[in-house]
Amino acid sequence: IAKRSKDRHIVLFEPSMHKVVERRVALEAELRQAVAQGEFRLHYQPIQDAGTDSVFAYEALLRWQRPDGLMTAKHFIDLVEETGLTNEVGLWVMRTACRWLKSIHADGHAGATKVSLNVSAAQIMNINLPEQMARICQEEDLDPAHCIIEVTEQSAMVDPERAALVLQELKRLGFSLALDDFGTGHSSLSWLHQYPFDVLKIDRSLTAEVGQPGGSSKMAVGILYLSQLLGLRVVAEGIEGQTQMDALHRLGFRLMQGYHIGRPQPDWPAPSIMTAPAPSLSGGAGQTLSA
Ligand code: C2E
Ligand code: MG
Ligand code: MG
Ligand code: MG
């Protein structure tokens, strides 16, 4: 096998490339099996509201329970998409997260907390997505207003017009919309008023420096102010320390997410008993794809 390099010379297929392909093919087969055997899990990471001292939402993050350990989303999410498993996995994520939030709400004191879901490029290009998601909410008896759909600019850019249609329909059905990872990629400000977003998530690459000696907060603050003018809620992602958190708070940030506030984990106690000791590991996280 040969492949054409950029300058149009033929390069030989090196043994190292062969290894990469081999590994990929194996991983693909394992991924299909994972779907069939229910090896996916969701972990939930809190987005804290410093203004009300409550959990604004929990973001559901996909995990793959493999024999050799737990794999985080960043290591396999692209493969899910490339293997055409996006829709199946995506709808499982939706249903599992809805059930989990219901179990958290069952306490009766936490009705304001939402669940935030990531959707991929293929999902946001799927014209049937809004209807499919609304149906799941209906079946699980959860108001779509409790679901935030997170989409990245990169995903929406694949086909901006189609993404607009899907986002508008999701909005019409009552879902909240978030623009994720803002600050990576183009960071086009026009997205913010062209699309019906409710929440903007500022990527950790823009919050990392805040509170550091000599670190700049100009970009983060600029985006915060503009978003506020446009009526959006802003989440600062990647909060890894107290100094950073305090600095962001002083700059006017209210919604914050990161390892310092809470790592993604399989379960959380209902927010009204948030001060209680260690959460149990039972509940929604144990559900499988066939559930
Ligand atoms: P994201 O939506 O921006 O999620 C944040 C990622 O950063 C997560 O990685 C999370 O574990 C990690 N993170 C959270 N707080 C901190 C922090 O303080 N410091 C650092 N360094 N990292 C932090 P994860 O779980 O590996 O997910 C990676 C990406 O995979 C996500 O980025 C999201 O785009 C995608 N993803 C995750 N779950 C799903 C899913 O169910 N469906 C789809 N389509 N994509 C998903
Ligand atoms: Mg996200
Ligand atoms: Mg993000
Ligand atoms: Mg990110």
TrEMBL record:
It comes from the Bacteria. Residues 268-291 are annotated as: Disordered. Signal peptide: none annotated. Residues 24-278 form the EAL domain. This is EAL domain-containing protein. It comes from Acidisoma silvae. The chain holds residues 341 to 631 of 631 of the full protein.
